[in-house]
Specification:
Layout (H helix, E strand, L loop, with lengths): L19 H4 L14 E16 L17 E6 L1 H4 L5 E5 L15 E10 L10 E4 L5 E3 L6 E4 L2 E4 H8 L5 E11 L22 H9 L8 H9 L3 E5 L7 H7 L4 E2 L2 E5 L9 H16 L11 E6 L8 E6 L4 E5 L6 H11 L5 E3 L27 H7 L6 E4 L8 E5 L2 H5 L8 E2 L1 E4 L6 E6 L16 E6 L6 E7 L4 E4 L8 E10 L5 E9 L23 E6 L4 E6 L9 E6 L3 E6 L9 E6 L3 E6 L3 E9 L10 E5 L7 E10 L6 E5 L5 E7 L11 E11 L2
Parallel strand pairs: 3-5, 9-10, 9-12, 9-13, 13-15, 16-23, 17-20, 18-19
Antiparallel strand pairs: 1-2, 1-4, 1-14, 2-3, 4-5, 4-6, 7-8, 11-12, 14-15, 18-26, 20-21, 21-22, 22-23, 24-25, 25-26, 27-28, 29-30, 31-32, 33-38, 34-37, 35-38, 36-37
InterPro entries: ECM-enzyme_regulator, Peptidase_M11, S_mold_repeat
Organism: Ditylum brightwellii
Protein name: Peptidase M11 gametolysin domain-containing protein
Length: 695
């Protein structure tokens, strides 16, 4: 049982959740009434959408009372829709259907569905209702390849490559929507009744990329948290391609932002429908010069607040390449980073009863302002992103002979190159039974995480996985504190995680000790002074003291004696042992031998074949005249008979002996090399194998 934690009282933040009944209007209105559905087969790519919900007063509400599920939608095949990238609401499939879906990659064909589309707008999407009797063919069964010159192309793999990467350079295309009911009014002015985006294209470009001096942007924060491993740049930053050169010459494009006019009025239109219209209009601009919105690794759409957002500040595919922002939040760095976190595959970070309430992580909901917060990600998400993999530590308490004892540093000191590989760690993953593991991280307020205002400078223990799933903060441990989990991983023992001490320096660190309590208690070890003070009473480890750190390290002892003819093993009590290998391959038609430098060899005996096998039981030894007369089933020319002990009683020195071999039989004795007159029970069974050579 995990020790209970008090629920955190939150005074201010942006995010809350709405009743499930109002979530659907984030993307699509109900178009089934007043329109006639068309029954047809439907092919589409499946996506999962994660919205960031806000209230006007920006106060978090209790998620025990309200909440939302991810929204699953279909991006309909362009050959059916008439335009690429058009989303549809999806109804008639249960959660089980999505169990094996790779969102953004999996393609599905529904053999029978009804498609509803609004009459007033082409390519605005609609609703797909799947018939219960429909077959449902996912990619891998049909529709996964298409023919190009030179052969077949795996479309699933092609879509997978288009997902937003966790490392590298991501060129971001910003689609600045200008709807019909905005034009003619005072552009970029809230006095127009929020019919237009409230900021200029250049303002949004500056908030995203710092093109006009903004120092706290989505680009700067990803760059700082990853130390340049993931960089966001404006679309067509490199205008060396002919297509980008043409786009750069477009008066409606600058610094990665493309102004996209649509004819439709969007006041009150659901955001998903409005985004579909912007996507289609953007492609009509880009296609003539050989580009599309999918030519870029990621794209975001900005639309006026007059669109029906269903309470969302923004939403994004998880994972995927698309996001959409309400204009009044599209310049908020924290909202941008949160949604792009969804694009690279991360869900939410929870604490207590709120699935967004871990504010030490950008996938929670820290207080999002225009220039903040400067926060990175929690343990599971950091491990998933992989930026700190050289400073990861995997620890399995149940199957490890030793506890973990080490120093955790914050992301800031890692980014400043003050951490040392093998000495310092950014994330420790603790394996446990079940689908989730525990992740331990030092929540240091410094550098890219200097905006953290949630359990500052404590050691955080978060439960989650390495695939971007929902995470939950389990404990926050101040210096000198501990967190204990009883009956850990199905064991009767308690896992104890101790924050032994914290020191400032280069780097700042928290010394952490993790061990299973065997009933004697778990205490932070004293600082070691030499290797002898690190004795763990295990003969199979090499115990080393780091005098500089005062921490013991225990590495597995290598028992290899360099002799290929020995089996090298280690016992924790006695240490290494080296037993001579018999090299017996169980084949009587080979000669088994061993060379120290090479190992075992098995040379075949020419013209050798096993012809008969049999067993004979001897109740005494040759000292008492006991023998067994064997008759062969067949007659052989010059047979060779081999006999060996199969079962013996006790450890007496006896061995079988074959004599009087003829073409039809032989005699088997038990001989005693030590002549000690062993009892009749000494050897109870001898197995005999017959072999013959051809002449």
């Amino acid at each position: 049982m995990k020790i209970s934690l008090p629920k955190l009282a939150l005074s201010s933040a942006l995010l809350c959740t709405l009743p499930r009944s109002s979530i659907g209007s984030i993307l699509f209105d109900d178009v089934t009434s007043g329109t006639t559905g068309v029954e047809t087969s439907v092919g589409c790519i499946l996506h999962e959408v994660e919205p960031l919900i806000v209230t006007d007063d920006h106060v978090v509400v209790d998620e025990n009372e309200v909440g939302h599920d991810p929204i699953r939608i279909c991006e309909r095949d362009a050959t059916e829709e008439g335009a690429p990238g058009i989303m549809y609401d999806l109804e008639g499939v249960g959660n089980d259907f999505f169990a094996d879906v790779e969102f953004g990659v999996t393609h599905v064909v529904f053999s029978k569905a009804t498609v509803y589309e609004p009459d007033e707008a082409n390519h605005s999407g609609g609703k797909i209702i799947v018939d219960p009797a429909s077959t449902r063919t996912k990619s891998g069964e049909e529709a996964t390849t298409r023919r190009l010159r030179g052969g077949m192309v795996d479309e699933s793999e092609e879509r997978r490559r288009r997902l937003s990467p966790k490392e590298g350079v991501t060129d971001l295309l910003v689609l600045y929507g200008i709807p019909g009911d905005c034009r003619g009014g005072p552009d970029y002015n809230t006095t127009s009744g929020n019919l237009c985006n409230i900021r200029t294209p250049s303002f949004y470009a500056d908030s995203l990329f710092g093109t006009n001096g903004d120092l706290k942007t989505v680009a700067s924060q990803f760059n700082a948290c990853s130390k340049g491993k993931l960089q966001y740049v404006p679309a067509c930053s490199d205008a060396s391609s002919a297509e980008c050169a043409q786009l750069d010459s477009n008066v409606l494009f600058a610094n990665g932002v493309l102004e996209v006019k649509i004819d439709n009025n969007v006041i009150g239109m659901a955001s998903g429908s409005a985004v579909n219209l912007v996507t289609t209009a953007a492609n009509s601009i880009l296609n003539p010069i050989g580009l599309s919105v999918t030519s870029f690794k990621q794209h975001m759409v900005i639309l006026p607040d007059s669109v029906s957002w269903g309470g969302a500040a923004a939403w994004a595919y998880r994972p995927g390449t698309q996001s959409a922002f309400r204009s009044s939040y599209a310049d908020h760095m924290g909202v941008q980073v949160h949604e792009f976190g969804h694009n690279v595959g991360l869900l939410h970070s929870g604490y207590g009863t709120g699935s967004y309430n871990d504010h030490s992580c950008m996938q929670g909901n820290p207080s999002y302002g225009n220039n903040g917060p400067e926060v990175c990600w929690n343990g599971p998400n950091s491990y998933t992103l992989g930026w700190y993999k050289d400073y990861h530590k995997d620890f399995d308490p149940v199957n490890s002979n030793d506890p973990f004892h080490g120093r955790l540093v914050g992301v800031g000191d890692w980014a400043d190159d003050e951490a040392v590989v093998g000495t310092h760690y950014v994330v420790v993953k603790i394996s446990q039974s079940g689908s989730n593991d525990l992740f331990v991280m030092y929540n240091r307020v410094e550098g890219p995480t200097k905006g953290v205002n949630f359990f500052k400078n404590e050691v955080m223990v978060v439960e989650g996985g390495t695939d971007g799933r929902q995470t939950w903060l389990q404990s926050h441990i101040p210096a000198g504190g501990e967190y204990a989990i009883e009956n850990f991983s199905g064991q009767s023992r308690t896992l104890v995680i101790k924050n032994c001490r914290q020191e400032a320096g280069a780097p700042d660190y928290s010394e952490v000790y993790i061990a299973l309590d065997d009933g004697t208690g778990v205490e932070c070890p004293a600082e070691c002074t030499d290797d002898d003070s690190c004795d763990d009473n295990d003969m199979c480890t090499v115990n080393t003291c780091s005098a500089e750190l005062g921490i013991c390290t225990f590495t597995d002892l290598v028992c290899d004696d360099g002799d290929a003819c020995t089996d090298d093993v280690c016992d924790p009590i006695t240490g290494c042992s080296h037993t001579k290998s018999t090299c017996d391959d169980g084949d009587v038609c080979t000669v088994d031998s061993c060379v120290a430098e090479v190992g075992c060899s098995h040379e075949s005996i020419p013209n050798c074949a096993v012809m008969e096998t049999g067993q004979v039981e001897l109740t005494d030894t040759i000292d008492l005249g006991v023998k067994a007369q064997i008759e062969f089933t067949h007659t052989y020319n010059d047979p060779v008979v081999v006999a060996f002990i199969n079962t013996r009683n006790g450890d007496a020195s006896v061995s079988p002996r074959v004599k009087d071999v003829t073409s039809t039989g032989c005699t088997i004795y038990m001989q005693e090399p030590d002549h000690q007159n062993h009892s009749p029970e000494t050897v109870s069974l001898c197995q005999m194998t017959l072999v013959f050579r051809l002449h």
